[in-house]
Amino acid sequence: MNRKRPAILTVCTLIAVLTFAGCYRPVSYPELADTDVYPTIVRAARYHVVGTSVEGRPIMCLVLGQGSDVALIMATIHGNEPAGTPLVRRLATHLRQHPEILDGRKVVLLRLANPDGLAHKSRYNTRGVDLNRNFEAANRLNSKQSGLTALSEPESRAIRQVIVQYRPDRIVTIHQPLACIDYDGPAQELAEHMGQYCALPVKKLGARPGSLGSYAGVTLGIPIITFEMLGSDSQLDSEVLWQKYGRALIAAILYPDPVQ
Ligand SMILES: [Zn+2]
Predict the structure, then answer these.
(1) Backbone angles phi, psi at 139, to 5 degrees
(2) H/E element, 247
(3) pLDDT per residue over 32-77, tens digit each?
(4) How far is the CA of 176 from the centre of ligand 1 (A)?
(5) Of 34, 117, 182, 234, which has the fewest beta carbons less than 10 angstroms from its beta carbon?
(6) Where are the chain's structural domains?
(7) What is the architecture of the domain spanning 29-254?
(8) How far, in Å, is the centroid of ligand 1 from the Cα of 76?
(9) How far away, in angstroms, is 93 Cα from ligand 1 center?
(10) What does the mean pLDDT of the chain come to?
(11) Cα four-point dihedral sign 72, 113, 19, 34
(12) Cα torsion at 226, 232, 235, 241 (round to 10°)?
């Protein structure tokens, strides 16, 4: 008689029960593949599934460092603004190669906030909602396109959950194509600091109803940058994007310290 069989059955049953209960999610994520290269840093790196899109795609978050100063950097809340995603992936590589940046700091990376939108090359999520109008801000307007209620969409709830969980000291959300560094909340100095490290001008565009900027910047008082790159940046590979914008992102992480 095979004595291993009951043990295997027990493990399979346990996984089935946990999966059904939503406690166990098998994770496959490209960035996991290169973790062997940087074992020291990876010990301090944590991947999380922070939510699931309407079509069932995981929304992933990578946390690097364990310090008390927290920067959240995210991209592609609008699915037709794809360039931020490879830029944030390249930023993760840089942080692994330069662990000194993480001294006293924690960096939370959410490189693809709207995976369904990216898959369909759409600004909106699958239900036609602009996620960047779906937050619980004082200036929110309920509508089909902004969501009939605040946080009606799983993707915006995932972003909010990251903010509640990590309580970032500042947030950078990467967009296209308005070619400027916009800000909400007490973030003018941070915007000007980042502006020293890239060619984008600082420009106050004004708070959009129910936007992440209105929610995080105005409602919660967290300095938040809307980092608007160019439309043509979608054609660039991650190395060229990094040359154009990498130092500005590092500046946001190191703020108020200068980039060496
Ligand atoms: Zn956008």
Answers:
(1) -90, 15
(2) helix 238-254
(3) 334 444 444 444 567 889 999 999 999 999 999 999 999 999 999 9
(4) 6
(5) 34
(6) 29-254
(7) 3-Layer(aba) Sandwich (3.40)
(8) 7
(9) 24
(10) 88
(11) negative
(12) -50
